[in-house]
Amino acid sequence: MFRNLMPLLARNFHVLAPDLIGFGNSAAPSRESFEYTFENLTKNVAGFLAALKVDQYFLYVFDYGAPIGFRLAMRQPERVLGIVSQNGDIYQEGLGPKWAERAKYWANPTPELRAQYESAFAPETIKGQYLTGEKPGTVGPDGFP
Description:
By secondary structure, this protein is mainly alpha-helical. It has 6 helices and 2 strands.
């Protein structure tokens, strides 16, 4: 979704798209050295904005970025000039039954439960998320393995 929207927004806006820690092309520190929470990811993005001296912005949120973006907005609403949201759940009920099952793993991350979700991160699964519904040859390979 965002791959087609970002170029359209860039026609009229200066677009900043930070790569979240452990996502996309960024490094993925071990769980022992970085606690993967929306709170920590929010602190990282807030630091990114501070380093660039961005004091006002339109906020675009998508998927996992929604809880991060909305945390930023709640902390400093005067900085947010507007919000564009695509597929951005902001409440736990919005995650649906699939995530209720995964919450069991989050609460008790045994090797057996982890094995149930390995296929979700298989290269073909990730590739399918990017390519399904798109015209062949229109999606660059930089976002999937």
